């Protein structure tokens, strides 16, 4: 599943540590989410989307999974 | 019980306490091997201090050691404990098989470990499935379960 966390973060000039502190998670978790290695829980996904003023379906794109790739 | 102890101190303290109890058992036992308690206590204290230092680091390991893990790090800790449990069970089973095969009378500790693991697993299924989530809200319709 792709996401726009890195894109949104860099466009706002934020560091991974700043985003992590705002979301209440570790910097390592932000890195894992950005790289697609970790799928956040639903509550965390909502927190991320709200933090970047987006909806969850805009922030997380399940296209890869639907394609079966 | 541990809420008044700083998160960073919790796991190092538990480690130090467990090691001290183990070391104390050698003193209680008495005899010529009483000094084993020192040989145990020193590495345990060094390990506890090392854990405290690591608990302050900005890493997954540090977060777990410092009792401040987020959801992903908790998942890592859970998977690691599951792996440790599997390894322990495999070794206990191998020990039990070996003890039985060579007519050893030291088979029962392995059986106790296996029994504790089995009971713990069943208790976990009960506590975290129906116990934590409640009973089904609709009756079973007999619809086949997905493969």
Low-confidence stretches of chain A: none
Q: What's the average pLDDT of chain B?
A: 93
User: How many strands appear in the DSSP assignment of chain A?
Assistant: 2
Helix content of chain B: over 70%
Series of H and E elements of chain B:
HHHHHH
Number of helices in the DSSP assignment of chain B: 6
Q: What is the mean pLDDT of chain A?
A: 92
Structural class designation of chain B: mainly alpha
Largest sheet of chain B: none
- What's the helical proportion of residues of chain A? 55-70%
* Major beta sheet, strand line-up of chain A: 1-2
Distance between the termini of chain B: 44 Å
Account of the 3D structure:
The complex is a heterodimer of chains A (69) and B (147). Chain A is mostly helical and 69 residues long. Chain A is built from six helices and two strands; from the N terminus they run βαααααβα. Chain A has helices at residues 5-11, 16-23, 27-34, 42-51, 56-59, 63-66; strands at 2-3, 60-61. In chain A, strands 1-2 form a two-stranded antiparallel ribbon. The longest helix of chain A has 10 residues, at 42-51. Chain A starts with a strand and ends with a helix. Chain B contains six helices and no strands. Chain B has helices at 7-29, 36-55, 60-65, 71-101, 108-128, 130-133. In chain B, 9% of the residues are buried. The mean pLDDT of chain B is 93.
How are the SSEs placed, and which strands pair?
The complex is a heterodimer of chains A (69) and B (147).
Chain A: E1 2-3, H1 5-11, H2 16-23, H3 27-34, H4 42-51, H5 56-59, E2 60-61, H6 63-66
Antiparallel strand pairs in A: 1-2
Helix pairs in contact in A: 2-3
Chain B: H1 7-29, H2 36-55, H3 60-65, H4 71-101, H5 108-128, H6 130-133
What labels would you give this structure?
heterodimer; A: 69 residues; mainly alpha; two-stranded antiparallel ribbon; 6 helices; 2 strands; 6% strand; B: 147 residues; 71% helix; 0% strand; flat
